[in-house]
Design a protein that fits this description.
The protein has four helices and no strands. By secondary structure, it is mainly alpha-helical.
Length: 105
């Protein structure tokens, strides 16, 4: 009985995910010409990614202080237009160094 219930839940989740993505396409029959709406739609993927990533960053370490240090390092390097790998490695190094320092305090 548990397997059937799992597949029912899975089908409902798949259907709801599909409908959320398909309904806007079904409702708009013509090409979007409004520049405000176009620019708004261009930023949605970045906003969703930020909404999923940022909260996880602050709860991924033992101490929120080390998470804040990692975010600060990442933001500073990103502002200086460093590459993604450089930013990620430096942020991890900042978190690691902060965790080591905080373990001695």
């Amino acid at each position: 009985m548990d397997n059937i219930q799992f597949f029912i839940y899975l089908a409902i989740m798949a259907l709801s995910t599909y409908l959320i993505r398909a309904i806007p396409f079904a409702l708009s029959r013509r090409k979007i010409e409004n520049t405000f709406v176009k620019s708004f739609l261009c930023y949605i993927p970045y906003a969703v990614l930020a909404a999923m990533t940022v909260p996880a960053v602050f709860f991924s370490t033992k101490n929120p202080i080390s998470a804040i240090v990692g975010v600060i390092v990442a933001v500073i390097l990103a502002l200086f237009k460093r590459g993604l790998l450089t930013v990620a490695v430096a942020a991890c190094a900042g978190v690691f160094a902060t965790e080591i320092v905080l373990s001695y305090l």
